[in-house]
Amino acid sequence: MNSLKEVYSNRWTAWWRRNSTALQVAASISCNVAYFAETGYTRTATMLSIVSLGGATLYYISKRRLKIKPQDLIVITGCNSGLGYSLAMHCRAKGATVLAGVRETGVISSTNAAIKSLRDEGIIVQDLDITNEDSVCKFGKRVKETMEERQLMLRALVNNAGVMVFGEFEWQTQAHANFQINVNVLGTMRITKELMPIIRQNGGRIIVMSSHCSAEPLPGVSIYSATKAAIDAWITALRIEVGKYGVNVVSFIPGGFVTQSNIMRNQRLYFDEMEQHMSDEVKQFYGNYFTRYAKYLSQASLPSNNEDDVKVLTNPRIYETFDGALLDVYPSATYRSTPTWIRDRLVPRFVGTPSWQINKQ
Prior knowledge:
The chain has 361 residues and is of the alpha/beta class. Helices cover 54% and strands 10% of the residues. The protein is built from 13 helices and seven strands. A seven-stranded parallel sheet has the order 3-2-1-4-5-6-7, sandwiched between helices. Strand 2 (97-102), helix 5 (109-120) and strand 3 form a beta-alpha-beta unit. Helix 2 packs antiparallel against helix 3 (42-62), helix 6 (133-150) runs parallel beside helix 7 (174-202) and helix 7 runs parallel beside helix 8. The relative contact order is 0.12. One of its GO terms (molecular function) is oxidoreductase activity. One of its GO terms (biological process) is steroid metabolic process. Keywords: Oxidoreductase.
């Protein structure tokens, strides 16, 4: 928890980031009011003051946030590492009761370390495979039992579980496409539908992890980008469908943190599978481009020196933005922890894949 405490260390910085724009606007309006009053335009100054006061009041009403209580249950999927693990720790540190969905299949030391660390903080851990109907049903029963036993209210379902396979579209197998669609799209829908009756009854909130890739697809993750675009379309329609029942649906775009999660742990295996399924014509066409591409990106999937060392994300903007998605009384449709930039020229440098060279026979 040391790194999480460091995130909270500078409250002033977080407060400034949240209110800097409003303070700058207020300062500008104050200067204008003073100018009009000084030059004799008292009526203009008075009207500007009234409008400004009304606008400021509406702004702060819209930015009101709920308070977290121990009776609030927050359910988070995909808590093995990275964002899910970090948000579970974050919500628990704020005083909520947290139920974390974790894939316990296989012997992965980092997963075991994450489970132990979560439980040490008082977080309830439950095995969850969102692609498996039986697993989702068992998870739903655990949520209901926990709420009844502890007299809890479901504050939010945080759909964080997701997978990504890196590689150009022609290389990825049908199994890779099915895997990403089943987890990122169908799995997210499956767990949400399972918990929807409870969410409706409690007036809970649905938070879905989206990605910049949904609107700005990156080369090498075309299928992953397609799944995120699909989930964004679903979120948009769902927001209207369940809004009339008092349920808020929020899209959260956390930004890049690939190196701090397990999302690329199996990338080397994926490249091996791609190569095995390539035809001779495809292998000949791509030549050493595929080899260089796979070697470069496989570095991201190499285990750390200490696989048991599971850490929380250290970017404070992620937590500050997530708090808005979770606690704003009047939530926005989308929350982004990083600003949106014009990316056409920056994407190749951002992705950093090897350059393409035409094979010369």
